[in-house]
Amino acid sequence: MNKRKLKFGRILFCQILAIIIAVIIIILSFGPFQQFSSILIFGNDKVYHFIAYFCLTFTISLALSNSILWVLAGIIVLGGAIELMQPIFNREASWTDFLAGGIGTFFGVISIRYLFFWFFGYDVTINYEVPINKDK
User: Fold this and answer.
1) pLDDT (tens digit per residue) in 56-74
2) What residues does each domain of the chain span?
3) DSSP calls for 14-83
4) How far apart are CA 35 and CA 28, in angstroms?
5) What is the pTM of this model?
6) CB contact at 8 A, 125 and 69
């Protein structure tokens, strides 16, 4: 397999996975929370906000590695829009939920940035190769 097909396959897989994660986030954000409270492993739902937005950011950043700052902004706007629309669905909007999602998004961007730098030798936010000293 050539590199172009592998890159296209990675991008397509990450896009599909990101859509699935986004749909799950939206369903869980607008559905009745009482049905989901019995499956909580951690006592605080902020952990779930962090994990969900981290996973969403990580997968979208893998697919759109050259637009990582736009990914950060877009997912934060998505989280804010979800929180603002929750009262329409008889849910309580929470600044702490928004903050937990924002922190998860930030850590998703940071982790994908350093993953690319450590494994591939370039910074995805700048989009050029950085020389790595292999002698150390």
Assistant:
1) 999 998 887 777 888 899 9
2) 49-128
3) HHHHHHHHHHHHHHHHHS-GGGTGGG-SSS-THHHHHHHHHHHHHHHHHHTGGGHHHHHHHHHHHHHHHH
4) 10
5) 0.76
6) yes
